[in-house]
Amino acid sequence: MAASQAGADGVTRIVEVGAKAETTREATAEGWLHTTPDAVAELVAGTKKGSPIETAKIAAIGGVKRTPDLLPHCHPIRVTGVDVIVEPEAEGRIHVVVTVRAIDRTGVEMEALTGVAAAALSLYDTAKAFDRRARIDGVRLLAKSGGKSGDFVIDQP
Q: Which residue from 6, 19, 84, 135 puts its CA 20 to 30 A from 129's CA?
């Protein structure tokens, strides 16, 4: 997203994007919650709090929307859409994929990554009751499009 620029006085500033053209932007990120097959079954079945899977989707959307509040160099942007996939797998893991779309002057990579992290943290928050060794990993950008730097698609699985 927006990189910081330090002035001659050494003070970090947010990058000026006002002169940049608004373009359609999209980014997709993924991450994993690794736990036990039994813990995944518990998360899928739901708890007294409700559905951890649906809660993770809501957390992802909230994370996308709150990215500039969490990351000081990110500009507030006009998000036009968010898709969240939370896929439990029998092997004892849950795959989270978040795609963010916007029409703005700066990219949405950080929003997609923050959405994945928020969803995974939400899942972990419930999974820890069933598996203290649960972990989050593999959070990464899969693809982005739009903007001056052009398109990017990860070249490895």
A: 84
Rounded Cα distance, 111 and 126, in Å: 23
Per the annotation, the verdict on 125 as an active-site residue is yes
Measure the CA–CA gap between 81 and 26, rounded to whole angstroms: 9
pTM above 0.70, yes or no: yes
Marked catalytic residue, from 9, 38, 125, 155: 125
Per-residue b or e along 24-60, where b marks 16 or more CB atoms closer than 10 Å to that residue's CB? ebbbbbbbbbbbbeebbebbeeeeeeebbbebbbebb
> How many residues are recorded in the chain?
157
Residues 6 or more apart in contact with residue 137 via CB below 8 angstroms:
31, 32, 34
**pLDDT tens-digit readout, 45-73:** 998 889 999 999 999 999 999 999 999 88
